[in-house]
Design brief:
Blueprint (H helix, E strand, L loop, with lengths): L4 H17 L7 E10 L2 E11 L28 H11 L3 E7 L3 E9 L24
Antiparallel strand pairs: 1-2, 2-4, 3-4
The structure holds adenosine-5'-triphosphate and magnesium ion (MG).
């Protein structure tokens, strides 16, 4: 599997920061990683960050990956999830959110094992953090 570790770490850090922000003391945050199979063949890897926090209202949920979309109480820029989605898509992957108000939120991303159309990533260039820098 070939990924840009700096960028994927940034994605997971963004998801964790959101979960910590929206989960009161005593709640839980779970990170899970699993291998996706097609039959017996490995196809990709999923990472999910699930919190037991405030949740996201159904009318907001479709918009949370849009640039600058944020709740009024957010002190951030509303870019965390938008950047996360761009980075995951640049890896050929997908990201989605499920949430229930008062119960919590799960953000799950899937990365394929093989991705041919890597932007800015000539073959043999394995320098961490270099390949996808134009997305910033
Ligand atoms: N785990 C979560 N639980 C509840 N709401 C969330 C969660 N993650 C994201 N949100 C909602 O989605 C909005 C957008 O998230 P995003 O990470 O893009 O921006 P932000 O956290 O407000 O700012 P930034 O990440 O740029 O510092 C948040 O303002 C918040 O309303
Ligand atoms: Mg954020």
């Amino acid at each position: 599997m070939e990924i840009d570790p700096v960028r994927i770490r940034q994605v997971v850090a963004n998801l964790l920061a959101n979960a910590l922000q929206h989960t009161p003391a005593g709640g839980s945050i779970r990170i899970a990683c699993e291998l996706n199979l097609e039959g017996t063949r490995p196809r990709g890897v999923s990472v999910s960050v699930a919190d037991s926090g405030t949740g996201i209202a159904p009318e907001d949920l479709p918009h949370v990956f849009a640039c600058f979309y944020k709740s009024r109480d957010s002190r951030g820029s509303g870019l965390g999830l938008a950047i996360a989605r761009q980075l995951v898509v640049a890896h050929g992957g997908q990201i989605g959110a499920r949430s229930e108000v008062g119960k919590g939120t799960t953000i799950r991303l899937t990365l394929p094992l093989e991705h041919r159309d890597r932007p800015n990533r000539p073959d043999g260039d394995h320098r961490a953090g270099q390949g996808l820098s134009r997305l910033h």
